[in-house]
Design a protein that fits this description.
This protein has 19 helices and 9 strands. The chain has 473 residues and is of the alpha/beta class. Bound molecules: 6-phosphogluconic acid.
């Protein structure tokens, strides 16, 4: 090795790991990097200027190069690879060393790893990092979980490398155990939903109103200047202007309409179901990726299943205004769902999350960054125990004034047959949530009828069962 006593180790020198190393070095930290693909180790050392970086050619070389107690960050694909890396790393670690998993690991894996490594007095943290390649290099949003004392060992480094929102670092201690990875999972669930909503509006504008990509670029650019200002709206505007190197056509039109996923959206939905929090827009967004992947079936169904023949009955400007308002409305409902999930998870998993802080660190650096998050932050700052964002003084009147608009948009979907599942789920969530009465009395009666599952009454305490006129099943 060229030098001893590096501040941090990084295992996994792919795009995210490498750029995070450079970001750390920008802020004066020294880093030893290792990847089992040694060409990545060589790549790390290319063009590093005056950075204090060393490329290690084995895990042992990496751990030998670090100051003690060591801090080793992992940026490797989630799942069994993380365990394999930890197994490879463990023999070279000592008591009090700290391993930090910065990937998109499932939160239950993180809890298990914390427990297992604690047996050898090795600390473990799960940290969510959002912002892609650009964020890793220039400042991501960072979502750390673990013990408070362990966080204190890395807080100044994380604050230095994180994105800044009005000068405030987009990182803060979130909570114990897997809190960081849980918050990152919900971040991704929200990401799925915002992307689906944008895609539905794109379909209405393109198929329903026949807008060109140039026009679409203008629409999204205009929206990005207003209340919808966000990373996802802004990259969408850019996408419409990109030409394909191979054909010279607009690239977006050359991309297959079949979405892939790595699983974090589905995990959000799964856990929301497990802890019984309604997140219907996130649920439908995961389902729509799955439906989009049925490309061959859809091609057949297109020739067999008929839809309505109606056209959109709005001028382009009026349509753009309506859709902007519908997006505004539905973005709020998505954050309301994500935040309610975090609130419940905080109780169930004892994370003690602070929703104001979470909104604050999502304001910059991450994929779901949006000007809306400043309002969400202020909603939780004034009403920390808010059960649902939709009830906040900040959002209540805004939703009321937008709800008529999204109803017109939902009707457009029904009339034209253009599918708007996430937009409609957003409206249905709002309508269901504001319903003092829902038809679940009937559902309870059915459960009791066929399964003697009992019901509660509106006029007295207790659990009741009725001998209904049982039909043969
Ligand atoms: C981020 C992103 C990042 C990744 C997504 C993609 O916050 O930087 O969310 O984590 O791009 O996980 O997820 P899918 O492949 O499932 O769309």
């Amino acid at each position: 090795m060229e030098e001893q006593g590096y501040d941090y180790g990084m295992i996994g020198l792919g795009t995210m790991g490498r750029n995070l190393v450079y970001n750390m070095c920008d802020h004066g930290f020294s880093v030893a990097g290792y990847d089992k693909d040694l060409s990545m180790v060589d790549k790390l050392k290319q063009g590093i200027g005056n950075y204090k970086i060393v490329g290690a050619r084995s895990i042992k070389e990496l751990t030998d190069a670090l100051k003690k107690p060591r801090v080793v960050l992992l940026l490797v694909p989630a799942g069994s690879i993380v365990d394999a890396v930890i197994d490879g790393l463990k023999p070279s670690l000592s008591r009090e060393d700290l391993v930090i998993d910065c990937g998109n690991s499932h939160f239950t894996d993180t809890d298990l790893r914390i427990k297992n490594l604690a047996k050898d007095n090795i600390h473990f943290m799960g940290i969510g990092i959002s912002g892609g390649e650009y964020g890793a290099r220039n400042g991501p949003s960072i979502m750390p979980g673990g013990s408070k004392a362990t966080y204190a060992r890395v807080s100044s480094m994380l604050e230095a490398i994180s994105a800044k929102a009005n000068g405030e670092p987009c990182v803060t201690y979130l909570g114990t155990g897997s809190a960081g990875h849980y918050v990152k999972m919900v971040h991704n669930g929200i990401e799925y939903a915002l992307m689906e909503l944008i895609a539905e509006v794109y379909q209405l504008l393109k198929q329903g109103a026949g807008m060109t990509n140039n026009e679409l670029h203008d629409v999204f650019s205009k929206w990005d200047l207003g209340s919808l200002h966000s990373f996802l709206i802004s990259i969408t505007a850019d996408i419409f202007m990109k030409k394909d190197d191979l054909t010279g056509n607009d690239l977006v039109d050359m991309i297959l309409d079949s979405a892939h996923q790595k699983g974090t959206g589905a995990w959000t939905t799964e856990d929301a179901m497990a802890i019984e929090v309604p997140v219907p827009v996130i649920d439908i967004s995961v389902s729509m990726r799955n439906l989009s992947a049925l490309k061959e079936e859809r091609n057949i169904a297109e020739t067999l299943l008929l839809g309505p023949g109606k056209k959109i009955n709005y001028g382009k400007n009026e349509l753009v205004d309506l859709l902007g308002d519908a997006l505004d409305f539905s973005f709020i409902t998505v954050f309301a769902q994500g935040m309610e999930l975090l609130q419940k998870a905080s109780t169930v998993y004892k994370y003690e999350l602070n929703l104001e802080n979470i909104a604050a660190i999502w304001r910059e650096g991450c994929i779901i960054r949006a000007s809306l998050l400043e309002d969400i932050r202020s909603a939780f700052s004034t009403q920390p125990n808010l059960s649902n964002l939709m009830l906040s003084d900040v959002f209540k009147d805004r939703l009321i004034s937008l709800q008529e608009k999204i109803r017109h948009v939902a009707c457009m979907g029904i009339d034209t047959g253009i599918p708007l599942p996430a937009l409609m789920a957003s409206l249905a969530y709002y309508d269901s949530y504001r319903s003092g009465w829902l038809p679940d009395n009937l559902l309870q009666a059915q459960r009791d009828y066929f399964g003697a599952h009992t019901y509660e009454r509106i006029d007295r305490e207790g659990i009741f069962h009725t001998q209904w006129n049982q039909k043969e099943s």
